[in-house]
Structure formats: structure tokens, C-alpha cells
Write a structure and sequence with these properties.
Blueprint (H helix, E strand, L loop, with lengths): L2 H10 L1 H9 L12 E3 L5 E3 L4 E2 L1 H11 L6 E7 L4 E6 H17 L7 E5 L4 H13 L2 E4 L6 H11 L3 E5 L1 E4 L2 E4 L1 H10 L6 E5 L13 E3 H6 L9 E2 L3 E7 L7 E6 L1 H13 L8 E4 L6 H13 L3 E5 L11 H9 L3 E4 L1 H10 L16 E4 L6 H11 L3 E3 L11 E2 L16 E2 L4 E5 L12 E6 L9 E2 L3 H9 L5 E10 L5 E6 L3 E4 L2 E4 H9 L4 E11 L3 E10 L7 H15 L8 E5 L12 H8 L14 H11 L1
Parallel strand pairs: 4-17, 6-7, 6-8, 8-11, 11-12, 16-17, 16-18, 18-19, 19-20, 31-32
Antiparallel strand pairs: 1-2, 3-13, 4-5, 9-10, 14-15, 15-25, 21-22, 23-24, 24-26, 26-27, 28-29, 30-31
The structure holds coenzyme A and adenosine monophosphate.
Coenzyme A binds next to strand 9 and helix 12.
Pfam families: ACAS_N, AMP-binding, AMP-binding_C
Family: Belongs to the ATP-dependent AMP-binding enzyme family.
GO molecular function: propionate-CoA ligase activity
Length: 624
């Protein structure tokens, strides 16, 4: 099979194509109907299929004879723990925890928020929800109480599952006070919380509302998988948009299972029994798709790593994990390797470990800069494969399709569109751009299975954000170009979303926090290029008339406010007071030119600006 014919079939005969791919999955009732179109080219995949994602991930592997194979390996340098679960053992734990939730009234369609560190219980809780047909919404542990509260108010969960603490290198972060604060702030109150107590911190439980994980599990009756419609939501994952309010990306069960299983073959070239490690966090889409679901759908062994690329204990950590668990495929964000390279530029620590089981390295989440790419190639001699995707799509939009045809790589390119994604670069009015010219990277509808079906509770926002801007296309929010060979180059967001250490954040959200400071009249937050983290946010602040606060003191307060409201991962550390903000005559802040200044790029004075001198002043401030 070659890439071109597979790709052409996927876009010319999508129903036939996905009917065939759907056969790889154990359905409860296989779909007869493959695609049901709604208006505007959007629609539903496998509308009459019945499935259970926990059954596909777990029980199906037992039926296939993999019950004694390792399903999950937990490797935690921060607690000095290694623990593994076979498919039999993981299924038993998941069925039990599903029993815990069921006994407390959680069922089909109910939401459950999971706010947990990288412990096996997070994976167990996700799969337990799936088993009951309940909808999980995992919130990344690095988000502050306010962010959790926003998600509680939006998802209206029946329950919250949490742990007593997370561990960041050597810092122990108690989670329960954050959960309590979030519930207090949210305008919806969950009925109950299940708390996994870790030895480092014992959380206080609120009588009548909170229950202890271990105690509940001890007496639980295991629950069987519940058949759900392929189109029923499996999960909601909130992601940053351009406004302060995060978007709840909704993923269905059937399309997700089919697409992710296919992606394991196509994108990663992985098969049953392989050891797959996505060094990410279950709170991000990479964690959902490639720590939890896809490797299990494929019958692989997946690694859950509670540690960092550096400092736990050193920059050899990734190679040590690869050696200990004979990892075949490693997937992480370029930032992680930039951190490793900074501490171990000659890769001396890599040489200490036997990483001979490793076949390929995969990078995504942000642009793979050519120098990190070259460093990895030189020191590992492995294929280093960039791929481009988003929370919204759940799997790679562009990749090197190694499972069917390994293509030549071009540094800076995520290679070619994955079968199913008819990627085109277009102008804002949908006209195709010539090869090599930059424009909006868009996907001609329909999207393949596995992509978002809507935005939770706000279908109008889904349409307005993704479908309306370029009729007939899904708007990715990224800009880029396609070269003469059909290779796709992603050059960065065209909106106010930034990418900090592989974490997607909204500058609009940070602006809301900064603007709420009593001394601030107006502000603007932009992403500035950062050698290690890709981008970091920087704020420009205009004081209210008569405000007398010292700029350093203000910066300190703003930094603290962003940490408190959004979380430390925002990495908001710089706020500069300016006399004026550069605006167009109609009053719009000129973010693009501020970004160029922040990045130290060439910039020119836009013709629309009302007062060009202000740009020089801002440039000076950045240079100081
Ligand atoms: N819970 C609580 N706090 C967290 C957290 C979590 N799960 N994750 C990060 N934080 C905190 C950190 O402790 C740090 O706090 P500090 O400002 O008090 O020091 C802050 O958020 C910033 O964290 P981070 O962005 O991770 O920076 P770092 O300097 O600690 O580490 C890297 C740098 C490169 C090692 C780290 O960013 C990394 O591993 N990146 C890979 C990203 C990744 O896997 N992305 C997923 C997409 S594939
Ligand atoms: P997230 O939804 O957190 O996965 O972030 C998605 C965004 O990250 C995309 O819209 C891109 O801006 C960026 N991104 C992800 N992967 C890549 C990649 N391989 N190259 C360039 N940018 C990427």
C-alpha cells in the first residue's frame, strides 16, 4: 500500500474507507450507516453503531488473549515507584471503580471531572467513566482552583475524582484545598468527590460529600461495560480559545475508537504488544489519546510517567525509562528535548542507557524547531518524526505515514496530510493559495472520525469558531503553507492562542486577569519567543489615571494574580508598564506588530496606526 492511494481513497470514498477501518474495532453492534451528514458539511460517523470504549480498550484485549500482557506501567521517579498492571488487572480495577461510581448513581451521560496527578488512578477513573457511558472531563493538575471552577460550572459534573496531592519534582502540591475552593466558587455543586489519598499528604474529607478511594474500592461490585451509541460523548476536554472562557471539546465514542486505532498503525507504525510512551500528561489531549486510549485500543503496553525530562533526577530520565521498559516508540513535545539538550548537550547521559528497543521518536504539540530536530537525529540516529494536531482533532492532521509508507522528512514540516484530512491552505475567503504561499491551514469537510463533534453546551460557538469562518472547511487557527511536494509547514497560530512549553494557553484569558487589577486601565498580553518553552506570555499594561503603584510591585502582583487564577503553567512572569498601547484609528490593539517586536523580528509601522512613536517606545522596553 502506498500513501497516495490510501490518501486519495480516504477523501474520494470516505464512507468505504472508514467502513473498512471500523472493522478493526470490537463493536457491540457494528455500524451499518457510516456517515450521516448534517448541514454545512459536518455530520456524524457511525450513527447506528453501539460500542463501549472501556470494552474496546480492556475486555477486547482479554478476549484476544492478551490478559496477562502488561497494559499499563506506572513509572514515578518523584515517588520512587514502579508498578505495572496486566490487561486482566487493569480491567479488574476499572470495573471496580466503575462499580463505585455506579453505586453512587453515576450513569450514562453523567459528567465526572477528574483532577488528578499522573497516577494510575487517573487512567482507571477515565476508563471507569467510559465503562458506564459517563462523560469524563479531565482537568490538568497544573490549573489553579479558578480554572477548575470554570470547568465545573460548565460541565456540571455529578462527581469529582481527585487525589490528595500532586508532586512537581520535589514540591508537593495539595490538591484537595484547590478542589474545595473550586467547588465553592463554581455555580454548580457536584454530589460527591472521591479522593485518592497519597502517602505524601492526607486530604481532609468533608463528611457527607467526600469518600476515600481505597475504602470505596474495597467493597465495590465490578460493573460491566454499558453499550452506548457511537455518537455519544466519551469525554469533554477543555482547551484555550481566544476568549477567557475555555472551550469544552466533545469527543464521541465510535469515531474516536476507529480513528485512534487506525492512527496507531498509520502514524506510529505500532502493533499489539509494542511498548508505547507518550511523555505528556493525562490532562492534555496527547495524554488522552496516546497515554490512555490509543495504545490500549491497539493492545500495546502504555507508560504513565510521573516525572520531568530533567531534574527527576537528571536529563537522562527519558533514556532511563526507555531502557527500563524497553520502550519502542517515544512521543513528547519538543520543549522536553530542548530541556534535555540544555542540560546534556553532548547526550552523555543518553550513552549510559540501553535504548536499543526504541524505533522512532515522535514530536508534536508545538513547532519542532530544526535545531532540536538535528540534535535528536545526530544523537539517537532514529527517525525523528514531527506531526501536527490539536485538541480538537484528537489525532494527527499531518504526519509521516510510517505505517504505510515512510516518507522523506523535511525539517520544519509535519510532512503530509493524514488520510482522512483533506488539508488545504486557503485565504480567508476560502480561495486556495498557490504552493509555497502562506495562508490559513484548513481541512475540507467532512472531518474524519475522532475529531470534535461540538463544543460542550455551545454548538453555536463550535460553528462560529470552526465552521463559519471559511465555509466548507474546518478552520484550524494555524497558519502555514504547502510546498510543491505537498509537504505541510505549520508556522503558528493566527489567533490569540499561545503555546508555552507545549501547553496551549489563551492570552485573552490572561488579559482578563491582568485587567482586573485595580490599577490597570488597559492591557495586552502577547506570546514572545522563548528558547526553551517556545513562547512565553508578556503583558503590556496601561495604568489608570492617578494610579501611583511602583512598576516592579505591580508586576509582582500581576504575576501572582495569574498564578492564582490560571496556574503556574501560564509562566506569566513579565508585565511592563507603558504610556500608551498601539492602536489602530478604530481603537483595535495592534497585537501582530507587538508580537513581532517581542520576538525581536523586523517590524514596520502599519498604516492604520494612530500614533507610530509608541511602537519605538515599546521596542525599547523589550530591548532593555
Ligand atoms: N501541577 C502543578 N503545577 C505544575 C504542573 C502540574 N501538573 N505542571 C507544571 N506545573 C508548574 C511547575 O511546577 C512550574 O511552577 P513554578 O513556576 O512554581 O516553578 C510551572 O508550572 C511551570 O511549569 P513548566 O512549564 O513545566 O516549566 P518547568 O520550568 O518546571 O519545566 C520543562 C520545563 C520543559 C521540563 C517542562 O515544561 C516539560 O516537561 N515540558 C514538556 C511539556 C509537555 O509534556 N507537554 C504536553 C504536550 S505533548
Ligand atoms: P493543543 O490543542 O494543545 O494540542 O495545541 C494545538 C496547537 O499546537 C496547534 O494549533 C498548533 O498551533 C500547535 N502545534 C501542535 N503540533 C504542532 C506541530 N507539530 N508543529 C507546529 N505546531 C504544532
Amino acid at each position: 500500500m502506498d500513501y497516495q492511494s490510501e490518501f486519495r481513497r480516504s477523501v474520494d470514498q470516505p464512507e468505504e474507507f472508514w467502513r473498512e477501518k471500523a472493522r478493526a474495532i470490537d463493536w457491540i453492534r457494528p455500524p451499518e450507516e457510516i456517515w450521516k451528514a448534517s448541514e454545512n458539511g459536518h455530520g456524524q460517523w457511525f450513527p447506528d453503531g453501539l460500542i463501549n470504549s472501556s470494552d474496546v480498550a480492556l475486555d477486547a484485549n482479554i478476549r484476544a488473549g492478551r490478559g496477562d500482557q502488561k497494559a499499563l506501567i506506572y513509572d514515578s521517579p518523584v515517588t520512587d515507584t514502579q508498578q505495572s498492571f496486566t490487561y486482566n488487572e487493569l480491567t479488574d480495577q476499572v470495573a471496580r471503580f466503575a462499580g463505585v461510581l455506579k453505586a453512587r448513581g453515576v450513569g450514562h451521560g453523567d459528567r465526572v471531572i477528574i483532577y488528578m496527578p499522573m497516577v494510575p488512578q487517573a487512567v482507571i477513573a477515565m476508563l471507569a467513566c467510559a465503562r458506564l457511558g459517563a462523560i469524563h472531563s479531565v482537568v490538568f493538575g497544573g490549573f489553579a482552583a479558578h480554572e477548575l471552577a470554570v470547568r465545573i460550572s460548565d460541565a456540571k459534573p455529578k462527581a469529582i475524582v481527585t487525589a490528595s496531592c500532586g508532586i512537581e519534582v520535589a514540591k508537593v502540591i495539595p490538591y484537595k484545598p484547590l478542589v474545595d475552593r473550586a467547588i465553592e466558587e463554581a455555580d454548580h455543586k457536584p454530589e460527591f468527590c472521591i479522593v485518592f489519598q497519597r502517602p505524601q499528604v492526607t486530604a481532609e474529607l468533608q463528611a457527607g460529600r467526600d469518600a476515600d478511594w481505597d475504602q470505596e474500592m474495597a467493597t465495590a461490585t465490578p460493573a460491566d461495560p454499558v453499550p452506548v451509541a457511537a455518537t455519544d460523548p466519551l469525554y469533554i476536554l477543555y482547551t484555550s480559545g481566544t476568549t477567557g472562557k475555555p472551550k469544552g471539546v466533545v469527543r464521541d465514542n465510535g469515531g474516536h475508537a476507529v480513528a485512534l486505532r487506525y492512527s496507531m498503525e498509520l502514524v506510529y507504525g505500532a502493533g499489539p504488544g509494542d511498548v508505547f510512551w507518550a511523555a505528556s500528561d493525562v490532562g492534555w489531549v496527547v495524554g488522552h489519546s496516546y497515554i490512555v486510549y490509543a495504545p490500549l485500543f491497539m493492545g500495546c503496553t502504555t507508560i504513565l510517567y510521573e516525572g520531568k525530562p530533567v531534574k527527576t533526577p537528571d536529563a537522562g530520565a527519558f533514556w532511563r525509562v526507555c531502557q527500563d521498559h524497553k520502550v519502542n516508540y517515544l512521543f513528547t513535545a519538543p520543549t522536553a528535548f530542548r530541556a534535555v539538550r540544555k542540560e546534556d548537550p553532548e547526550a552523555d547521559l543518553m550513552a549510559k542507557y540501553d535504548i536499543s528497543a526504541l524505533k522512532r521518536l515522535f514530536l508534536a504539540g508545538e513547532r519542532l524547531d530544526p535545531s532540536t530536530y538535528e540534535w535528536l537525529k545526530e544523537h539517537t540516529s532514529l527517525p525523528v518524526l514531527d506531526h501536527w494536531w490539536q485538541t480538537e482533532t484528537g489525532w494527527a492532521i499531518c504526519c509521516n505515514p510510517v505505517g504505510i509508507e515512510e516518507m522523506r522528512t523535511k525539517p520544519g514540516s509535519a510532512t503530509v496530510p493524514a488520510p482522512g484530512f483533506n488539508v488545504q491552505v486557503v485565504s480567508l475567503d476560502g480561495r486556495p493559495m498557490p504552493a509555497g504561499e502562506q495562508g490559513q491551514v484548513a481541512v475540507k469537510l467532512p472531518l474524519p472520525p475522532g475529531c470534535l463533534s461540538t463544543v460542550w453546551g455551545d454548538d453555536a460557538r463550535f460553528r462560529k469558531t470552526y465552521l463559519d469562518p471559511i465555509p466548507g472547511f474546518y478552520s484550524s487557527g494555524d497558519g502555514g503553507f504547502i510546498d510543491e511536494d505537498g509537504y505541510v509547514f505549520i508556522m503558528g497560530r493566527t489567533d490569540d492562542v499561545i503555546n508555552v512549553a507545549g501547553h496551549r494557553l489563551s492570552t485573552g484569558e490572561m488579559e482578563e486577569v491582568v485587567a482586573s487589577h485595580p490599577a490597570v486601565a488597559e492591557c495586552c498580553v502577547v506570546g514572545a519567543r522563548d528558547e526553551m518553552k517556545g513562547q512565553i506570555p508578556v503583558g503590556l499594561v496601561l495604568l489608570k489615571d492617578g494610579a501611583t503603584i511602583d512598576p516592579d510591585e505591580l508586576e509582582e502582583e500581576l504575576v501572582e494574580m495569574v498564578r492564582d487564577r490560571i496556574g503556574a503553567i501560564a509562566c506569566f512572569r513579565r508585565a511592563m508598564v507603558v504610556d500608551r498601547l498601539p492602536k489602530t484609528r478604530s481603537g483595535k490593539i495592534l497585537r501582530r506588530v507587538i508580537r513581532q517586536i517581542a520576538d525581536g523580528e523586523e517590524w514596520s509601522v502599519p498604516s492604520t496606526i494612530d500614533d507610530p512613536a509608541i511602537l519605538e517606545e515599546i521596542d525599547q522596553k523589550f530591548r532593555n
